Amino acid sequence: MVRIVFLLYILFPVLCFSQSEKHDPKISFAIETYAFLKGQNAALQKVAVQFPQLKPNVTAVQQNLNTVYGRAENNIKQFLKEELDSYQLNLLQIQIDSLLNQQLLNPIEKEKYAHDFLLKIKERSNFINNLSVSKGILSFKYHDAPHQEITDGHVNFFTTENHPKAEKASLKIPIPKSWLAEEAEMPETIQQFTSYYGNGNEKILIVVYDLPKELHSIKLSKKSISSLLPPQTNLIRTEPVTIDDIPAFMIEVEELLEYEKEPMKIRMLQFMFVQDQKLYCLQGSIGPADKDEDLGFQIKKYEPLFRLIASGTELEK
Questions:
Q1: Least confident of 9-13, 36-40, 44-48, 195-199
Q2: Which residue, 18, 31, 248, 313, is the most exposed by fewest CB within 10 angstroms?
Q3: 239 and 229 in contact (C-beta within 8 Å)?
Q4: Cα 303 to Cα 300: distance, rounded to the nearest angstrom
Q5: Is the pLDDT of residue 24 over 80?
Q6: Widest Cα–Cα separation across the chain
């Protein structure tokens, strides 16, 4: 039983950590992921202190973990510094440290249990069976450069084949693994994906419109697209692109909307093309955010990812 309990030490902080303050979902997600990483590091230190002869083993495991998780941990620390004030940050550190001290108070009964724990940690460097934790680590590993999640091979391919909302539309689209697939309310939106495993403020939407007869011969251009935009939408820039060798058009827009009775805005990159009397739109968005917030930095940060998704999209014929 002691061995089993000890092996659970690294999971206990993330599964049971209670936040005294209510934060927005992304901050809470970061805190839970950070608590897991702190718990893992504290358990390794426990092994090194109680069994000095295992220090080389612990050092080897720590070096491996730093290679796998180091970037995520550093990005989480920086993110929390930006999102929390000094009092909140200090209180968070105290709470996590107090929890870990309580859980690691009792000695490990046998050296064999410590050996087993180190093997378990080594296995977890390649696979974490807690889905939320694994998505959190992946999300924050690429917090500073979201497009690298795909270029590093952490990608799922979403296909519209047999999707109930994708009649006669067949697309294959690369999506970062840490983004959560969600059903969308709009009938034209086949699927939407939200960053940080559903806790972020960034979305990818796959939208397909059946064109009315009068628009069957439409040619996408700055003028034709401008005529389709609602009046509360500000067209920022346009650019001709290609998607699966099909002529397409990219636009950057900012849209004002009422969100829970508050004026908010969304910044979007939309990649559009016409095929078989349908208008396809791959949309990457930031928001909703306060109407006075400047979303220029965020859209630039995510533009490489949104472009990568559009350029990797295939129309399955």
A1: 9-13
A2: 18
A3: no
A4: 5
A5: yes
A6: 79
Asked if pLDDT for residue 129 goes beyond 80, the answer is no
What percent of the chain clears pLDDT 90, i.e. is strictly above it?
57
Classify residue 119 as left (phi > 0), alpha (psi -120 to 50) or beta: alpha
In the Cβ-directed half-sphere of 211, how many Cα atoms lie within 13 Å? 19
Q: Which one-letter DSSP state was computed for residue 20?
A: S
pLDDT tens digits along 99-111? 888 878 888 888 8
Residue 99 one-letter amino acid: L
Q: Provide the 3-class DSSP secondary structure of residue 163.
A: coil
**β-bridge mates for residue 205, sequence order:** 192, 283
SS3 annotation, 198-261: HCCCEEEEEEEEECCHHHCCCCCCHHHHHHHCCCCEEEEEEEEEEECCEEEEEEEEEEEEEECC
Q: How far from 149 is each of 15, 143, 146, 160, CA to CA, in Å? A: 25, 9, 6, 22
